[in-house]
Design brief:
By secondary structure, this protein is an alpha+beta fold. It has ten helices and 25 strands. The protein has a twelve-stranded antiparallel beta barrel. Strands 2-3-1-4-5-6 form a six-stranded parallel β-sheet, sandwiched between helices. The protein has a four-stranded antiparallel β-sheet with strand order 17-18-21-22. α3 runs antiparallel to α4, α3 (136-147) runs antiparallel to α6 (204-231) and α4 runs parallel beside α6 (204-231).
Length: 609
């Protein structure tokens, strides 16, 4: 587990709430899209230059190599076609069906697509999104000749695939060096399981050679992209991994709303009855449903900085629970009743909940938890008292697309002094947390990523006040300061979509509060009510930092801030003599700008012989 963390246990507000008072980074956004590629990205360019003959529409959809829009048309931009004279200053698509990655003249290879764009006055800016996808046609066109010579087939295809990857890396480097803020580079899916290369179509050896060619390309592409990214630190180069998603799609198409992920809907003559239930439109191209899945996957990659910011709730949960345990420890030291000399055993149980509104890129969150607390309390005299307590707590947190469980082990020590009506008390403590069963619903439903991590927190609280006897009711104005520092260790998600890599994070802040407490009662039964206000006066928390594992994508930061902001405090309870000891039942609430927290606790205090 690493570093001391917080807990929640015992009576106090719990969890972490988000809040509108917090400062949030602006959402990840792109102002326009520029596309270079082949038939997977072509929105009608080849169709235009071939006089509407390639592909034949219908059954192909308006010049797309599918039965509907391609994935680049589903990313939130209305990119015009290069062949229609779309201006280079707006979103524009230069992709051509059949294009290789090289400088071929017809259809224009991807190197020539870039030259056409820059030759027409096209430039790149920091808010541009550039999509680059190609390499399959290099493999397709070389494949028959290579397969005809089995002895040299792998060597031939290795050379073809490596050269194609080199072209893509050249393009990415050129675009990044020219100032493109974000470049989405897509690798090749698993070619051997597509209808055009499956065992039922060309035999197992052909399928294996297709897989070899694709994986060779993908490996060379990834290796080169890390170098390109290092040379262009001002450009965020993101690799979208289609290969990784291929087997999950093929193995369980029903989970993605499909019934067929192995054969083509259009066989060259007839179209299947329900194209939306097929992954493949023809031997190599996805259906419109398949392109929708690719677009969803692209969103998981493109917006990882914003989507990953949801993990802020983990550290915030730890921070708030540590604050609450400090509150709980000082609660018994600031009551009006006299201190009974001797040593006492305390134990109790609590239940709590937190509801937080959405704020910026962070979604609304809900948390519920319960815990138990055991402590020893010793009164040395009518002016000095000290004790220690251990707490266990478990909580379930649901935060937009993310959910997790927290198990916390905490230890606190406290001491109090009073003289007449004046009192001062101090508490210090630490917690160790285990964040288990972390899940994130990715943009590509129903894929859910998993993870786990741990962390800890340290905190201190100092409270002072006085009591004013008002005749039957006693009032106590009091002030307090708190300092809490919470650490959550970084971790990497596991799953088939974009695997977010969360960096270590520290959330720490000092806060001050003022409150007024009233107590009353008599013979073995007392009650209290309290109201106050708490706000941070020193916040030095880290930003949330998220990258993508095994990917050249940059680590992005999102500043989140205090979820509660300034918040009202309210508590009430009763304490009664029960046999040889006392029992108290209490409630404590916290009401922030965008979050509410509630804690209920039952505590027993028994004298030791």
């Amino acid at each position: 587990m690493s570093r001391f963390l917080r807990n929640a246990a015992a009576a106090a507000l719990v969890v972490a709430a988000l809040g509108a008072c917090a400062t949030t980074a602006s959402a990840q956004s792109y102002t326009r899209l520029v596309v270079f590629g082949d038939s997977l990205s072509d929105n009608g360019n080849l169709y235009a230059v071939t006089g509407g003959t390639q592909p034949l529409s219908p059954p192909y959809y308006q010049g797309r190599f599918s039965n509907g829009p391609v994935f680049t048309e589903l990313l939130g931009f209305n990119a015009g076609r290069y062949t229609a004279g779309a201006p280079v200053t707006g979103s524009v698509n230069y992709a051509f069906g059949g294009a290789r990655t090289d400088s071929a003249a017809s259809p224009p290879g991807m190197r020539n697509q870039l030259l056409a764009y820059t030759g027409g006055g096209g430039t790149f800016g920091a808010n541009d999104l550039v999509s680059i996808l190609g390499g399959a046609n290099n493999i397709f066109q070389a494949f028959p000749g290579a397969a005809a010579s089995p002895a040299t087939a792998q060597a031939t295809m290795q050379g073809v695939a490596t050269a194609a990857a080199g072209d893509i890396n050249f393009l990415v480097n050129s675009v990044a060096a020219a100032g493109a803020g974000t470049v989405l580079v897509t690798n090749l899916p698993r070619l051997g399981i597509t209808p055009g290369f499956s065992a039922g179509s060309i035999g197992a050896s052909g399928s294996a050679l297709a897989d070899f060619s694709g994986t060779t390309f993908n490996s060379a592409l990834l290796s080169g992209l890390f170098g390109v990214a290092a040379a262009n630190p001002n450009s965020n180069i993101i690799l979208m991994d289609l290969y990784k998603i291929s087997d999950p799609l093929a193995g369980n198409p029903g989970a993605f709303g499909l019934t067929n992920a192995s054969t083509a809907c259009f066989n060259g003559v007839t179209v299947c009855a329900d194209p939306d239930s097929y992954l493949y439109w023809d031997s190599v191209h996805p259906t419109a449903a398949g392109h929708r899945l690719i677009a969803q996957l692209a969103n998981d990659y493109l917006y990882y900085g914003d989507l990953g910011a949801q993990s802020t709730v983990q550290a915030e949960t730890g921070f708030r629970q540590r604050e609450d345990l400090l509150d709980l420890a000082s609660e018994g030291l600031s009551a009006r009743g006299g201190w009974e000399p001797g040593t006492h055993l305390t134990f109790g149980a609590l239940y709590d909940s937190v509801e937080t509104d959405a704020r910026g890129v962070v979604a609304a969150a809900d948390a519920t938890g319960w815990g138990g607390r055991v402590g020893l309390d010793h009164v040395m005299s009518d002016t000095l008292r000290f004790g220690l307590a251990g707490t266990f707590r478990t909580a379930d947190v649901e935060a937009g697309p993310m959910a997790f469980d927290v198990e916390t082990y905490a230890f606190d020590i406290y001491a109090g002094w009073r003289s007449g009506a004046m009192f001062v008390n101090a508490t210090v403590g630490g917690s160790i947390d285990q964040y288990d069963d972390i899940t994130r619903a990715t943009s590509l439903a129903p894929i859910v990523h998993t993870g786990d991590t741990d962390g800890g927190s340290l905190g201190a609280r100092l409270q002072a006040g006085t009591w004013l006897d008002m005749g039957g009711i006693a009032l106590s104005p009091r002030v307090a300061v708190n300092f809490v520092s919470t650490d959550v260790n970084g971790y990497v998600e596991q799953g088939a979509a974009a695997q977010y890599q969360y960096e270590d994070r520290t959330v720490q802040a000092a806060s001050g509060e003022i409150a007024l407490r009233a107590e009353g009662g008599g013979e073995g039964l007392n009650f209290w009510v309290e109201g106050g206000y708490r706000d941070s006066f020193g916040d030095s928390s880290d930003a949330v930092r998220v990258g993508i594992a095994g990917n050249p994508a940059q680590v992005l930061e999102r500043d989140i801030g205090d979820p509660f902001g300034g918040s009202l405090l309210a508590s009430a309870g009763v304490e009664a003599d029960v046999g040889p000891g006392t029992m108290s039942i209490g409630y404590r609430g916290r009401f922030g700008d965008a979050a509410d927290a509630h804690v209920g606790a039952i505590t027993f205090r028994l004298p030791l012989p």
